[in-house]
Design brief:
rod-shaped; alpha/beta; disordered C terminus; 10 helices
């Protein structure tokens, strides 16, 4: 019958154990004395033992009652803490959130929302996972991530994406390239230059959008070297292995031995999205998404500083 013991039974018991008087305990609990007496009798029946020795004048704890008084308060304290934790998890203010991101978004606004999220929800642990857009989308679909900040993702069943911001592409050439002194350039003019770029496995849509300034002109890029992140790509360009076309934000850490040239003659742009599972309804995820800035805002019109020419 121990399974029938409820938290309220322990609260009622402690009130009587503290007061050693049913009338005062009932007043403290704001219930009628007969109701309190009935609940204490119910508790004793469930435990199969007397907790109080009662006379017309006195109330005293039995040995079993003394042990219960020592243990009931910690039990209630643990229950209160556990239930409060469950409530915080339910409202999204406690737990662990796995957030994926593509490194090229680091100079932009989205990840700054993570700092505000951590300040607002200090009991939530945010585990950041860096990777290709395609890999992050796969991890979302399998449940390995809760949400992600990705660039031009391919559609994936069961995953919903929402635009955060859009920015232009720029050309990056070595400092000694024939076009290094240009103030603008077209994709067609770059078509004959060897190119350093991402593998298509990083994301087919992102791959094609990034190359679209060339593809729109009917030219096919001549990719001579692939690399796994923009930092490596930019340094390979600086070493003279080729040119590249990149999102503007990817050039903020470019070495001084490259030139960054705005592209003309193209409407191609890249968009950063948040992504989450379509059936995601946890407050933990909603709370983070609500803090990510610049939803739908063009980076070209934001206060983001221009990259070094």
């Amino acid at each position: 019958m121990v399974d029938g013991v409820e938290l309220r039974h322990l609260r009622y018991f402690l009130a009587v154990a503290d007061e050693l008087h049913f009338g005062r305990a009932a007043a403290r609990l704001h219930i009628a004395q007969p109701a309190l007496t009935q609940q204490i009798q119910r508790l004793e029946t469930l435990l199969g033992t007397k907790l109080f020795d009662r006379t017309s004048r006195t109330v005293a704890l039995t040995p079993a009652g003394q042990v219960l008084r020592e243990r009931a308060r910690p039990l209630l304290g643990h229950a209160a803490r556990d239930l409060a934790e469950i409530a915080r998890i339910g409202e999204g203010s406690q737990g662990t959130l796995y957030l994926g991101f593509v490194p090229s978004v680091l100079p932009l606004e989205p990840l700054r929302g993570v700092r505000e999220f951590r300040e607002r929800f200090p009991l939530v642990e945010v585990d950041l996972v860096e990777g290709y857009t395609s890999h992050l989308m796969e991890k979302l679909a399998t449940g390995a991530l809760d949400t992600a900040i990705v660039r031009d993702p391919d559609p994936l069943p069961g995953v919903t994406t929402e635009p955060l911001m859009t920015e232009p592409f720029v050309a990056i050439v070595p400092v000694d390239h024939p076009f290094a002194d240009r103030t603008t350039i077209t994709g067609a003019e770059l078509a004959d230059s060897p190119m350093v770029f991402f593998p298509r496995a990083a994301g087919s849509l992102a791959h094609d959008k990034n190359l679209s300034p060339m593809l729109e002109s009917g030219q096919r890029p001549h990719i001579v070297q692939e690399a796994t992140n923009w930092t490596i790509i930019l340094y390979l360009v600086a070493a003279g292995l080729g040119i590249t076309i990149a999102p503007r934000s990817a050039t903020f850490t470019a070495p001084v031995s490259v030139r960054i040239i705005p592209l003309t003659g193209t409407s191609a742009a890249t968009t950063i999205y948040t992504a989450h599972r379509s059936d995601e309804n946890r407050a933990l995820v909603r709370n983070l998404l609500a803090l990510l800035p610049n939803r739908g805002v063009s980076a070209a019109g934001s206060s983001t500083p221009s990259p070094r020419p």
